[in-house]
Design brief:
Layout: H1 29-42, E1 55-68, E2 76-88, E3 93-105, E4 110-112, E5 114-115, E6 117-122, E7 131-142, E8 145-162, E9 166-179, E10 183-193
Antiparallel strand pairs: 1-2, 1-10, 2-3, 3-4, 3-6, 5-7, 6-7, 7-8, 8-9, 9-10
Length: 194
């Protein structure tokens, strides 16, 4: 997984809207390390039980790295958020969201991310390998300015039975963003427990 060290913010810049003021404590290297440790622990389980039925509610965290693709700069940032999903195994549907996102770039600027990503699937792949669309408009602090970006992402997961973390879904996030800037997800992952 790609990681970088977030340096302390040297200056404070005011942002408009939901973004607030950059704060060096919003996202730290310790936060990224904790996500990676928890993700690795969640991935240790494998699911060998019966095909799940009924419904389950999962909650956890997501982390994805974005970089600018429009050639204006070499901007790159980590975005950490909370993920929640309701999965109906009988109808193969998933609903949920990624919220409470914070981001930090390689220059040490950290800020809240405005908006929410909607997790939605109807008739997703197989029961043990759920997949979903993840879409939404985010307000992000990119290259010193508040930018609106429509994210078009996909989630691909695997159900795991991990005794230490209860029933778990782990997986990847991929996709792009367009709007005030063009972004691509360099890598992304999530874990959520029932």
């Amino acid at each position: 997984m790609n990681m970088f060290f977030l340096k302390p913010l040297a200056i404070t810049l005011a942002l408009s809207g939901c973004l607030g003021t950059p704060d060096p404590q919003l996202l730290t290297q310790a936060d990224l390390d904790a996500f990676n440790l928890n993700f690795a622990a969640a991935e240790t389980g494998s699911y060998n039980g019966p095909v799940p039925t009924g419904t389950a509610t999962y909650s956890g965290h997501s982390l994805f790295y974005v970089s600018r693709t429009d050639g204006v700069s070499d901007f790159r940032a980590a975005v950490l958020g909370d993920i929640g999903m309701d999965v109906n195994f009988d109808t193969s549907t998933i609903t949920g969201s990624i919220d409470n996102m914070v981001m930090g770039d390689e220059d040490g600027n950290t800020s809240n991310v405005g908006g929410s990503l909607v997790v939605d699937a109807s008739g997703y792949g197989t029961v043990r390998f759920p997949s979903a669309d993840v879409d939404g408009m985010l307000s992000m602090y990119v290259d010193g300015s508040a930018r609106n970006v429509t994210m078009d992402m996909a989630l691909a997961g695997i159900i795991r039975d991990n005794p230490a973390l209860a029933d778990t879904i782990t997986g990847t996030l991929t996709g792009t963003g367009s709007g005030d800037v063009s972004l691509v997800l360099d890598s992304g992952s999530f874990y959520a427990t029932d």
